[in-house]
Amino acid sequence: MDGSALPIARSTLPEAAAERLRALIIEGELPPGAKLNERELSERLGVSRTPLREAFRMLAADGLLVQLPNRGAQVVALSPADVRGAFEVMGALEGLAGELAVARVAEADIADLRALQGEMEVAHAGRDLPGYYRINRLIHDRLNALADNAVLGQTYRTLNARLHALRFRSNLNPAKWDQAVAEHRAMIEALAARDGAALRDLLVGHLRAKQQAVLDAMENKDDKNLQGGKVP
Amino acid sequence: MDGSALPIARSTLPEAAAERLRALIIEGELPPGAKLNERELSERLGVSRTPLREAFRMLAADGLLVQLPNRGAQVVALSPADVRGAFEVMGALEGLAGELAVARVAEADIADLRALQGEMEVAHAGRDLPGYYRINRLIHDRLNALADNAVLGQTYRTLNARLHALRFRSNLNPAKWDQAVAEHRAMIEALAARDGAALRDLLVGHLRAKQQAVLDAMENKDDKNLQGGKVP
DNA sequence: CTCTGGCATATTGTATACAAAATGCAAGCC
DNA sequence: GGCTTGCATTTTGTATACAATATGCCAGAG
User: Fold this and answer.
1) What CATH number was assigned to the domain covering residues B13-75?
2) Å between A232 CA and D1 C1'?
3) What separation in angstroms does the CA of A10 have from each of A13, B68, B72, B220?
4) Class of domain A80-219
């Protein structure tokens, strides 16, 4: 993370509103397919319609909303095909990040990552799921940072946010969890060995497993938070 | 220049304004780093500031503008690092498109592509550069369509627009042109052979060559249309 | 002569008023 | 009875007025 020399993170109203809406969408308060009434939302957020509409445009560009002319904005409802597509792109991006990281990684970075891997295995052994997710995210962030590619990071974050709007809790069963931890270890070893192709394959495969888990969860209609299909 | 101030009469005003601005940026009427005065632009486009601001948000999300709080919008000025990053991501995306295309391609598609390849070689033999570019674009579009991944297509188009804003005329010298045509032929053969890995490598390499050409062009300060570095 | 502080001006940010379009309902027609 | 059609209401789209912030200039002190 840079962000050290930013003047001051003085947020403008449309940005703040967008942030707020993003959170509402991700936490499920605004579920997929929900119609967003401008007047109602502007009252609820305490801003007027003008900045709110700019927020809508931002979220629509991120793929979290769809805007229909003269018919307002809706929270996007991803179809299984969309999810598959998004994961495919995420895989390609992570793979690229891995290759770039290999080219730029220093010994100190590898030591850091090994330390994180150790923490992850501790969390895993202790069945500390939240801790695991936290470390997991740290490791992936670290890899993306090593890639040192702003466009990549930006694209990755946008896609990630879109998928998070699904609120998938792909129930991590013990076998899959074990496998994921093992895969992480292999990743770090591939990075240490500067084997870009191997790292790429590992990252792509890792993500493909997650994709399958999410798609399986979508099949289960009992999980009402995951609604796919087309919007009526 | 052609301030054909015809009040835009299309779908929604913000979208139309964004389209118009996008064109102005790509054709260089609004050069990199240019400050966009809301009032002046709104008069020039014949729209009021409100829809114009929504257009700004859209273009900023596409990476064509940067918006500074209370200091308005500027046309983005890509640094060489940004260009490198964007091309790296484009390469990953094209590579993915190739792999997906291999998985989904039908014989009829291959025949179509071979026909296009033939046209391209005719254009090449006749030193018809515009024709070459047209066919080139058709082939790449066809590959992306074969990938059948909306997220991929969307991401690809956005990045492509951002790079086009550079208005790079990477002067295609005869040797590079020959090579590019040969690479295209190899791509189609890899696709016909359903060799995804080979196709991916070809696409990535192909794009890497273009990246190098653009970066070289950026070095040449005499081409005033390509300005990199930070904005003062 | 340079630097600082404060004021005038220009520009962006936000709210609100008004216009246009879509939606829902009900009455009339087939 | 089902379908269409026109009106009332709701909702979105746009313009403009007002507020907040930044910018540039000028005067005065050092």
Assistant:
1) 1.10.10.10
2) 28
3) 10, 10, 15, 38
4) mainly alpha
